[in-house]
Design goal:
88% of the residues lie in helices and 0% in strands. By secondary structure, the protein is mainly α. Helix 1 runs antiparallel to helix 2.
């Protein structure tokens, strides 16, 4: 599960960088940020649930 989390975080980070690097794909950068934050939030919630 941790490997999937890391892979998703790297994928969203790459999408964000590509989106902001190419001017016409600004929307891709915004989507990448939203997905990155969402994945991080889900990972944090699941990690807390495992420690209880």
């Amino acid at each position: 599960m941790l490997i999937l989390f890391i892979v998703l975080m790297v994928l969203w980070l790459i999408l964000t960088i590509v989106g902001f690097a190419i001017e016409g794909l600004l929307w891709l950068g915004i989507v990448g940020i939203v997905l990155l934050v969402g994945t991080a939030a889900i990972g944090a919630v699941r990690r807390r649930a495992l420690h209880r």
